[in-house]
Design brief:
globular, alpha+beta
Length: 619
């Protein structure tokens, strides 16, 4: 254990709620005669196994620097009591507010609380801060999750995978080493209470999250949360953001900045945290800083689609350019949520460009630095009906290599369409071309339109708006640096990888059937043995299929199996979960299945079927 300002202790707690339910908590705190601030991470991700390795790195580090760091499982998850409810719903927030109040009143606490969350828990942290702003002094949110739509189109990538994970985690049992014989009736009650939130997720639009306390938002470029982070920064005068070259999660490199944030807002120490640029971002090779956002050093530069950008193609008297893409356009999109594996990154986009209509610039005479969210303002042919408009921005090298910079989708119902592309940061070298690629499909990121007619765009009334950062913006500015933390040694978790590990991402083209299939396997696969003897074995496969000319053939499925064992007491349980999603002309059709086994014998099996209208009305 490295040397920190404080020695630390660790203990497991039960946090009582007003209705008598108890939440499982793990507390790391400094050995101190003085009360200290509390840092609460409140999540459904099972502190006993799923997040144990990450928890054992950052929370003792916070405790060693003078904070009572608490990791709490939500109701009905892990070793917490009660039954699982709607993720991020009213019950979860009510419980969280009660946990904040209970922790703030402990004799070792000074009454000030900071909230920490990653992913969905990062969004919950912001909502919880708005619920109890008198107690919560600051929040750190990493990669906060938004809704299940992208520009009004329903997500295909990640939606059913997240649904499978959510149901699987809610179906896993408490640990008998913590709860004794009470684990089994508690588990069976959880299983009987399961209800997949398919209707809610398919109907969900954008996410509105109130920001009522000082927030430090952290994300990696490429994560779907980046645009949300920049909006949060623009709307809140006390928000700061770090956007770096990281995968999804809270990177260790950002921990010292979170500590400076806590020290300023919870302990009143002048750490200089609020004097840092409001936005610190990694642009290609270096860190940069923007004192405010939107930044005066970032200008909107307009590229007309019949001027600075032009398309190659067959000459026509019709000024409208037709866009009608094969249904497998989007297979080279990369991961919707990048976790840092090689297959997460989108490959060379030339295949995708060939399935799209491309508008290219001339070679750039000098480098162009881009920071923010581009917008494609397009005029479509009137009377064309609803359309799915997909816009990708690429940098094309002198050798023809096409590198994806960002992309966006808009479900369009009228002739004038504005597609907001995801926020990003990059330097495009001199000699490269900028390419706007338009398509009518982006599978398997979003569900295809029910028809296959595409749309037509008028280049003379269409513009790409790029956020161009002044090349001299950093002149005279202090360099932006991040200090590396010295963290505790990693938790001694033994990983046994499968003997025949699946490839990360495989795509198969069945030429005879005109079918495209993709299969993905996450990094979480394998068997992990924890220091306390718990064994967790996990295997997940996500698959997508579509026929080239048939949008209604699209199907997505995720299978997840989690097995928990305690060999010393003969405890062995398995939860098998499957979520399948397909669509017809008017509806999404989902099938969710759960099987639970104890010592190889099935103790629970159930199937849920949902039929949700494309406009979000259940039937």
């Amino acid at each position: 254990m490295p040397s920190y300002p404080f020695h630390t202790t660790r203990e497991d707690l039960r946090i009582p709620l007003p209705d008598g339910t108890e939440l499982a908590a793990r507390l790391w705190r400094p050995v101190s005669d003085e009360p200290v601030p509390v840092l609460l991470e409140y999540s459904a991700d099972r502190l006993g196994d799923r997040t144990a390795a990450e928890d054992a790195r950052r929370h003792p580090w916070y405790a060693g620097h003078g904070y009572a760091a608490v990791r709490v499982d939500t109701r009905g998850h892990g070793n917490s009591g009660g039954l699982p409810g709607e993720p991020g719903g009213e019950q979860e927030l009510t419980d969280g507010a009660a946990a904040v109040d209970w922790l703030a009143r402990r004799p070792w606490a000074n009454g000030r609380v900071g909230l920490l969350g990653v992913g969905a828990a990062g969004t919950t942290a912001l909502r919880l801060a708005a619920r109890v702003p008198e107690t919560v002094g600051a929040a750190v949110t990493a990669c906060p999750e938004g809704g299940h739509r992208l520009g009004g189109a329903v997500l295909a990538a990640d939606l059913h995978t997240r649904l499978t994970t959510l149901i699987s985690d809610a179906a896993l049992p408490p640990d008998p080493s913590r709860l004794g014989d009470a684990w089994r009736p508690g588990w069976l009650a959880r299983l009987e209470s399961l209800e997949p939130p398919v209707d809610t997720w398919l109907a969900a639009g954008g996410t509105t999250v109130p920001v009522s306390v000082p927030v430090l938002a952290v994300a990696g470029w490429g994560d779907p949360s980046c645009s949300f982070v920049l909006r949060l920064l623009a709307e809140s005068p006390t928000a700061h953001a770090l956007l770096g070259p990281w995968p999804h999660g809270l990177p260790e490199a950002a921990l010292p900045e979170t500590l400076r944030w806590w020290d300023h807002w919870l302990r009143g120490i002048d750490t200089g945290a609020v004097k840092e640029p409001a936005l610190r971002s990694w642009i290609s090779t270096r860190w940069t800083g923007e004192d405010v956002w939107p930044s005066p050093d970032v200008r909107e530069i307009h590229y007309d689609l019949d001027g600075q950008l032009r398309t190659a193609g067959t000459a026509s008297q019709d000024r409208y350019v037709p866009v009608r893409s094969p249904q497998h356009t989007g297979l080279n999109a990369g991961a919707y949520v990048p976790y840092g594996r090689p297959a997460d990154l989108p490959p060379d986009q030339r295949e995708e460009d060939g399935r799209s209509v491309c508008f290219d610039s001339q070679p750039l005479p000098e480098p162009v630095e881009l920071l923010g969210a581009p917008t494609a303002r397009l005029r479509l042919r009137p009377g064309g009906g609803p359309a799915q408009v997909v816009a990708r921005l690429c940098a094309v090298g002198p050798d023809g290599t096409s590198t994806l910079l960002t992309r966006g989708v808009r479900a369009a119902a009228g002739p004038d369409v504005e597609v907001e592309l995801a926020a990003f940061a990059a330097t495009v070298p001199a000699g490269h071309r900028l390419r706007l690629a338009l398509s009518s499909v982006y599978w398997p990121w979003v569900w295809p339109s029910a028809d296959d007619t595409g749309y037509a765009v008028d280049p003379s009334h269409s513009t790409l708006v790029l956020p161009v950062r002044h090349l001299a913006a950093d002149a005279g500015a202090a360099p932006v640096t991040l200090a590396a933390p010295t963290l505790p040694d990693p938790l001694d978790v033994h990983l046994t990888e499968p003997l025949t590990a699946r490839p990360e991402h495989v795509t198969v083209h069945d030429i005879g059937r005109h079918e495209w299939r993709s299969e993905l396997s996450p990094a979480s696969d394998g068997t992990r043995t924890y220091p306390d003897g718990l064994v967790r074995d996990e295997h997940t496969v996500t698959a997508y299929r579509i026929l080239t000319g048939a949008p209604l053939s699209a199907q997505a499925r995720t299978d997840r199996t989690v097995r928990l064992e305690r060999p010393d007491i003969g405890w062995d349980v398995t939860v098998q979960t499957r979520a399948q999603l397909r669509c017809d002309a008017g509806h999404f059709i989902s099938v969710v299945q759960v099987r639970a086994l104890e010592a190889g014998s099935v103790v629970f099996a159930r199937e849920w079927q949902h039929r949700v209208a494309r406009e979000g009305t259940s039937k």
